[in-house]
Amino acid sequence: MAFDKSKFIAQFKAETLEHLQKMNDGLLKLEKDPGNRELLEWMMREAHTIKGSATMMGYKRIAGITHEMETGLEKAMKGTVSLKKAHFDILFKCLDGIPPLLEDKVT
Fold first, then answer.
1. 3-state secondary structure string across the chain
2. Average pLDDT over residues 35-49
3. pTM for the full model?
């Protein structure tokens, strides 16, 4: 018997929106303290959680976006990238682009 994802879609969408709100709030804090390692680690975990859930539910675009976000945040955490305004602009655009993908809308 195949796994029926349809029973979990509504929960996945609701949880993803919660994680996105947390990440948005985290980015606002991170803008004020871009080198905050603890916050960067937390943001990476949030992105990782969304990525994993999206992968499991078949939302490949969301998984791809959050994978790239996770990679960028990891580089900032390791100090190979120093977060600037342009980075934050991209991260916020990534967050803004995910909700339409949850509704299977193309942006």
1. CCCCHHHCHHHHHHHHHHHHHHHHHHHHHHHHCCCCHHHHHHHHHHHHHHHHHHHHHCCHHHHHHHHHHHHHHHHHHHCCCCCCHHHHHHHHHHHHHHHHHHCCCCC
2. 96
3. 0.90
